[in-house]
Prior knowledge:
alpha+beta, six-stranded mixed β-sheet, disordered C terminus
Amino acid sequence: MEWNPAYTWLVLALLLSLAELTSGAMLLLALGVAAALTALVTAFGLGLAWQLVCMGVFSGVLVPVGIGYIRPRFSPRGVAYGTTGTGVEKGNRYTTLKRDFDGATGIKVNGDFYRLRVLESNDTELPEGSVVLFKRFEGTTALVTRDIDAPPASVEPTEYKEP
């Protein structure tokens, strides 16, 4: 069996498609499909310059389709991955929590704990269960305001008792 440039594109397509298993962004899969289509075109005997042009054209079409159309079909509904800190949380109400290992006060945004600071008073400690309005991030600190319209939540302290 003689080596053909189409085989190189097929190997590249396979590697890109396998690498997609680690990312889930559909970018590498789109590039893998573009490389496979370039291998198909290469089998007709086109030179390297035309192979690269074909790869560019296929990538230019398939990457936006993969990211904009196919990827949202595979994401769970209601989950906006990678949006924390972009401003989509602005104005949302959160209940304060105390972190276990150091007692820091914070809120959970999209499942991640962020320490907080109250904008009006620069306080970093609030009672657990206080309702706050999220304004923005400053570094990894959530800047919030107290929500005076919300009724205060009663949180009973729990103690650990040995059996």
